[in-house]
């Protein structure tokens, strides 16, 4: 059946989709800050959890959404007609016995609530089911089912809620599934069913368990259930199933009353309510609370807090207000209202990633919770726009994960600044990890002007692995803790600037046979993991080179703004500033490696704790020499031209030290990553950027799925990475990988190739919003596969980059060492009919509405800023490149509350 596209309702991102169950793999996130993480489908399938070891519902992958029968369900037994599921999740409704004409459905989604309306036309019964996770301190999901008689005759119905209670670790799904059910202790009460397993069997050991899982319910006025079917096998009946349970189909009397205690069986929160007679037009509602608690549940409190229609509606309204206030910190208004609403959902995604990490949604079935090192820094990019208040502390805490050898912890705890040793003592270093923190920190400094952050002290991470995980220090024991110590046993601290210098200087010397930085375990592309010995990442050599130049400028800015003439570093680090003592010939790979080895030896097993001071100008000069050498090296050695006359940068060398890109017997090999960072960091000249764009359009652009991450390499590439074992056009092997595609657009905008950048962003939006192919709700997916389907929805770093690119490059709203810089790069179609494009965003703690007026309808490149008004008053501004600078004090002097209007007139 041909599916309709979702459509937006109003101006707050709410959307509607008809017959949503006709599309596969759809799910929607429901979450709160307390730690409840849910996923829900149009058929109310999905999962509920507070962590890897505490799933209320069974953990699911996307295939389980259609194959498993263990979903949220609410049944009605209709006298004269039989059993009917309000979610459509019944054997009868999923079979030819129930025609599509008998039932119509629609889904509505908002921030952050989910509503499914289903009409049983044959009997005249409508069910409206609303689910959300409230903004409270409880790990709870609420569901309200409203049943309305839409026919002309009275209906007599018997309602039954049924939510299977898995109640244990995801590891138990196939490891002792039955044995762990023997641990279940199930209790019935006035309002529902609780399960508190006696022990937890998981990676932490066989421990006494306190965590409790509960399903509770009441009729809208507070009337409690009349009985329960708490054991799954009794609820289903012999030969029955969760999508056709005997207890409902045969309309059995409840088998268990309140106050029962049962042991050793799989449990279901099956709550039977009193029989109801519905007159035509009459509605009856039921409220269900599904909860995870750290111990037995206070039922009186839960009933008072959640189990009434009045309370449900109050909490739903509060939920909408809470999420709307978060998302209203940035809003775009262009000539395309649908795309503006779509961006609202993109804006939500970085917050979702902070709350879910990379786990606990059906496509992310590989995760065990938490985020990776790269995620910490990429997600902060958007949080600076969305939730700026905590960013400084987050940045400061994150730097505690850096090792003294320039690598970092790879297992991130759930609390800010919490890092633990590598799981199962498996050492791995992603060579790109050191590059991201500076980019994020620079954004913060430009937004805030807070150069003082760089001088804040922070500890270093320490575990058994040293020398970028190439060696183990057997003198270290876990009892020493995970902080670097000095030789006299004191915890060592260095400034944030020292951490950043280490992360960017050590890779400069850590080079392969062609003079580029070694690939090690992988770079940004985790799939390039099979070239740890001789593989090189040209792409990230470009990133580190641009970072070195950024650091040089940063030091000089510290001197200019703060009058700082020296920087203080660990005495062992002085060797890395080779030009200040014995300058190296950077073409000598052996000399670079030797210097790095000497540095490693000096910091194992500990550091002295002594500091040295360097002249800030000389230190900046050293960094500049390194960065300029690396850039020239790339231009001279990694620029390639193939037989067809196209030119671009090689991105990688494999583990046989062979260049990866260019002409090949299997066809042209090209990666998008190799182009992004050479463009973004300024390695590519303006002429080269144009040639790269042509090559990308020739070899990587595909009108069906967008800009591919790479061309077809052929074979599984055991000397490069597992990514090439994936089918071509999927995930890291030739899909449209949103993260790198958005960064490609960002790089093009940065270099002034605005039309080309616009085309890239426009393709991402059109691919995502083409529901016939993408089959995803509004937002950006991790990647678009060969069929055009959006994959791994919601949890992707590309959302942060898209939000940042739209705000700082397209609308040109950015900081410059604390001042506000406006440099719009809007194309003519992005202005509305009145020639206006605007954005609402936070800057310097003030909400600003920044409107660009383009009365002449000029396209980018033809307009300049003519005048600036603030709250209706013309104010002076400083011309800066193609934009203007507004002093931070002008913004900071405004009232802290309210929306302040900046009006910028553009003209030729």
Automatic annotation (TrEMBL):
Domain Glycosyl hydrolase 94 supersandwich per the UniProt entry, residue ranges: 114-307
GO molecular function, one term: glycosyltransferase activity
Keywords associated with the record: Glycosyltransferase, Transferase
Keyword Glycosyltransferase: yes
Residues covered by the Glycosyl hydrolase 94 catalytic domain: 630-810
Transmembrane segments: none
Record GO biological process: carbohydrate metabolic process
UniProt keyword Glycosyltransferase present: yes
Protein name: Glycosyl transferase family 36
Organism of this sequence: Fontibacillus phaseoli
């Amino acid at each position: 059946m041909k599916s309709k596209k979702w459509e937006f309702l109003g101006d707050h991102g709410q959307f509607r989709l008809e017959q949503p169950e006709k599309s596969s793999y759809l799910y929607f996130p429901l979450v709160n800050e307390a730690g409840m993480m849910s996923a829900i489908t149009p058929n109310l399938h999905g999962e509920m959890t507070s962590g890897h070891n505490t799933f209320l519902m069974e953990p699911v992958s996307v295939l389980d959404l259609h194959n498993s029968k263990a979903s949220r369900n609410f049944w009605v037994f209709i006298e004269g007609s039989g059993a009917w599921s309000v979610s459509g999740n019944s054997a009868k409704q999923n079979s030819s016995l129930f025609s599509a004409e008998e039932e119509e459905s629609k889904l509505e989604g908002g921030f952050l609530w989910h509503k499914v309306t289903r009409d049983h036309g044959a009997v005249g019964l409508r069910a409206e089911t609303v689910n959300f996770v409230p903004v409270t301190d409880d790990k709870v999901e609420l569901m309200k089912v409203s049943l309305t008689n839409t026919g002309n005759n009275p209906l007599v119905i018997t309602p039954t809620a049924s939510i299977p209670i898995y109640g244990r670790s995801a590891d138990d799904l196939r490891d002792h599934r039955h044995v762990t059910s023997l641990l279940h202790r199930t209790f019935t009460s006035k309002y529902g069913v609780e399960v508190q397993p006696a022990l937890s069997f998981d990676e932490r050991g066989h421990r006494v368990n306190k965590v409790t899982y509960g399903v509770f319910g009441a009729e809208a006025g507070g009337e409690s259930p009349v009985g329960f079917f708490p054991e799954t096998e009794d609820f289903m009946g012999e030969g029955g199933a969760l999508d056709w349970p005997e207890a409902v189909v045969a309309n059995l009397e409840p088998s268990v009353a309140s106050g029962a205690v049962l042991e050793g069986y799989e449990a279901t929160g099956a709550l039977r309510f009193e029989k109801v007679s519905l007159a035509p037009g009459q509605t009856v509602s039921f409220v269900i609370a599904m909860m995870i608690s750290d111990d037995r549940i206070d039922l009186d409190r839960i009933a008072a807090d959640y189990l009434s229609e009045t309370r449900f509606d109050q909490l739903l309204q509060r939920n909408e207000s809470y999420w709307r206030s978060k998302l209203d910190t940035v809003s775009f208004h262009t000539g395309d209202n649908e795309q503006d609403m779509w961006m609202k959902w993109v804006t939500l995604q970085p917050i979702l990633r902070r709350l879910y990490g990379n786990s606990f949604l059906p496509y992310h079935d590989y995760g065990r919770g938490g985020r990776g090192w790269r995620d910490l820094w990429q997600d902060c990019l958007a949080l600076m726009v969305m939730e700026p208040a905590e960013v400084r502390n987050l940045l400061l805490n994150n730097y505690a994960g850096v090792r003294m050898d320039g690598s970092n912890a790879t297992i991130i705890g759930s609390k800010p600044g919490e890092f633990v040793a590598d799981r199962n003592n498996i050492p791995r270093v992603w060579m790109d990890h050191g590059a991201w923190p500076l980019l994020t920190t620079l954004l913060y400094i430009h937004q805030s002007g807070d150069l003082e952050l760089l001088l804040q002290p922070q500890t270093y991470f320490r575990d058994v692995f040293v020398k970028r995980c190439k060696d183990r220090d057997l003198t270290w024991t876990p009892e020493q803790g995970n902080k670097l110590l000095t030789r006299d046993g004191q915890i060592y601290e260095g400034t944030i600037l020292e951490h950043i210098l280490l992360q960017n200087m050590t890779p400069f010397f850590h080079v392969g046979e062609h003079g580029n930085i070694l690939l090690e375990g992988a770079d940004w592309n985790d799939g390039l993991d099979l070239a740890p010995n001789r593989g090189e990442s040209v792409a990230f050599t470009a990133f580190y080179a641009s970072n070195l130049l950024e650091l040089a400028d940063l030091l000089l800015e510290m001197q200019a703004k703060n009058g700082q003439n020296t920087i203080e570093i660990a005495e062992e680090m002085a060797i890395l500033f080779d030009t200040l003592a014995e300058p190296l010939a950077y073409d000598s790979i052996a000399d670079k490696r030797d210097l790095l080895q000497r540095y490693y030896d000096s910091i194992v097993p500990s550091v002295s704790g002594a500091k040295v001071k360097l002249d800030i100008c000389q230190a900046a000069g050293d960094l500049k020499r390194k960065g300029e050498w690396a850039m020239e090296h790339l231009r001279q050695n990694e620029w390639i031209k193939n037989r067809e006359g196209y030119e671009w940068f090689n991105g990688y060398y494999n583990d046989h030290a062979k260049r990866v890109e260019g002409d090949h017997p299997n066809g042209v090999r090209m990666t998008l990553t190799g182009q992004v960072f050479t463009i973004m960091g300024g390695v590519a000249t303006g002429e080269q950027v144009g040639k790269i764009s042509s090559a990308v359009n020739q070899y990587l652009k595909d009108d069906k799925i967008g800009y591919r991450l790479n061309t077809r390499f052929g074979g599984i590439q055991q000397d490069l990475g597992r990514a090439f074992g994936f089918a071509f056009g999927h995930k890291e092997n030739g899909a449209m990988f949103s993260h790198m595609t958005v960064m490609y657009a960002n790089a093009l905008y940065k270099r002034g190739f605005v039309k080309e950048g616009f085309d890239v962003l426009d393709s991402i939006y059109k691919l995502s919003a083409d529901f016939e192919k993408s089959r995803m709700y509004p937002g950006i997916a991790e990647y678009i596969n060969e069929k055009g389907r959006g994959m791994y929805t919601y949890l992707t770093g590309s959302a942060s980059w898209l939000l940042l690119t739209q705000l700082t490059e397209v609308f040109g709203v950015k900081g410059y060492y604390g001042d506000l810089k406006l440099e719009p790069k809007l194309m003519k179609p992005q202005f509305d009919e009145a020639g206006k494009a605007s954005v609402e965003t936070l800057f310097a703690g003030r909400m600003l509405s920044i409107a660009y007026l383009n009365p002449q309808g000029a396209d980018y490149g033809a307009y300049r800023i003519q005048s600036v008004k603030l709250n209706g008053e013309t104010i002076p501004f400083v011309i800066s490149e193609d934009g203007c600078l507004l002093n931070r004090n002008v913004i900071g002097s405004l009232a802290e509350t309210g929306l302040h209007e900046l009006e910028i007139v553009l003209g030729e």
